[in-house]
Amino acid sequence: MKIFVKISVITIIWFIFPGNAGALNKYNDYKAMVGKAEALGREYRSLCTVKSLGKSHGGKDIIVLTIGTGEMDNKPGIAVLGGIEGSHLLGRELALGFAEYLLKSSGTSEIRKLLDKVTFYVIPDASPDGSEQFFGQPRYERNVNSRPVDDDRDFVTDEDPFEDLNNDGVITLIRVADPAGKFTMSLDDERIMVEADLSKGQTGSYHIYPEGIDNDKDGLFNEDGPGGVNFNRNLTYNYEEFGLNAGLHAVSEPESRAVLDFFFDHFNIYATFAFGPQDNLNQPARPGNDRAGGTASPSPAAIQEPAQFQGQAGARGSFPMQGQSPASGTGSTRMMMNQDRRITSVLKPDETINKLVSDKYREIAGMKGSPVTKSSPGNFTDWSYFHYGRYSFSTPAWWFPVERDKNPDVAFLKFAEENKIEDVFVPWTEMKHPDFPGKNVEVGGIKPFATINPPAEMLEDLITKNSKFIIEVAAMHPELEFLDIKTEDQGENIYRLSLKVHNKGIFATCTAAGERNLWTRIMRISLETGKNQKFLSGQKVQRIQRLEGDESAEFSWLIMGKGTVRITAGAVNTGIITKSVELK
């Protein structure tokens, strides 16, 4: 009886305050994510299908929601991805939230018309093994899958994981008082540890390590935990052989193979949107400008201090992360190729669209500033543009402001205080540590996930803004039409037929990078005549060159004989149009 009353009360609250119920949603674990996706598939059977692309190394399905009408794989497609890195849980919520937003809006004429012209492929989580650590014990940032890997190359796998020394359920840092240490308290906030700056007369007084024990007694802490390989370092463009968490070879993992196989099977995809650490939406990268600055906090690798491991993880380091990769954009915004003619930065014709979409993102999302970005080998965003040849956009979607030359962790604690974001820091607490007998050891630091994933109550607003952005950009898709169709009687039963194929969309029919890419379908135009007609000049089938937005290509034929001819033009990534013309 008590159980029934409790369920009834919850149900009543949901019906009375449905908006609040959405705002109070928590981050979804894997089971809840799959459940929501399948529920959308059942509710919108005519618009949405849900299937598995394959399984992660840990046995979790990589799911995709296909949303649209008609022959969905034969019209322009947009792919939306979350879970590019497992620690970025926000990406999973935004991708799945976009699918839900789109389907719930499908009753409007605007969205229905869009779904008639564009297909959306939504992959909520490309790294489900890593993402689940957000809900695991102990809780720490993890970007790798479940494949056992000998990270420290000592011929033993996964032998030195994190340990929760203060039993608070999260992994932070330990600081060990030592006059020979390299770290000191920040002058701006004593809770944050920074590397001492000798140029400012500072000297270190602490060693910093990730929370845990040196299990294998090699002088390093937690350097070989469970897993793995990072999806966002395992792709083919600029793949780093023998790189940290990069895998045995490019696309070595079931996750990356499943996602890339899906893309290569779908020639109709012309653009990808990824939610993850890379950012080329809020502030597209410029040549030679990583915008890095300020005194860095200890990174998960740098805090180990041995030179051979320094700099292998990320630039942000208030807490440890397994499998962290630095953030990056898609490179510079000018045309530049190396000696073997590989494209190494965004081509000039594509820069215009990149800037247009970036401006639109800032307008709709309203985010200011930008996180620090650095090059990350083997990441998805670069692969999508440079190797797959599609328009490729990526954003973290949420961050906190950091002034130039200011420490990001100090800035985050200030931001959290000003915005009343609670429970983001574990106070430094003294403890006894078996690896440091007789020394003053403390556990503490910023909690994992706090600096890259906003509080759950912010999700609804972020989903709405980012969904509106994708929908508005999707409306700019390439779209062909026939213009200026003319038939001229040349005498003696001969007719000249001429027309223009016009791209009335804003996006070009393909990227400049994809124009010579084997995985980009070539547009063509074909003309079919009747039995009593004969070609005199012109080609029955010919290529249509890449068309920028509002650009046209002209064609003409000489045909002998009256009757109907049928013209077909386009490709799956632009849509295919047909027209019948009567010669008389």
Structure, described:
- The protein has 584 residues and is of the alpha+beta class.
- It has three domains: 25-149 and 228-285 and 328-399 and 455-477, Aminopeptidase (3-Layer(aba) Sandwich), CATH 3.40.630.10; 154-226 and 400-451, no CATH class; 480-583, Immunoglobulin-like (Sandwich).
- Helix content is 22%, strand content 22%.
- It is built from eleven helices and 22 strands.
- The strands form six sheets. It has a six-stranded mixed sheet, with helices on both faces. Strands 9-6-14-13 form a four-stranded antiparallel sheet, with no helix packed on it.
- The N and C termini lie far apart (83 Å).
Question: What can be said about this structure in brief?
Answer:
It contains 11 helices and 22 strands. The chain is α+β, with helices and mostly antiparallel strands and about 575 residues long. It starts with a helix and ends with a strand.
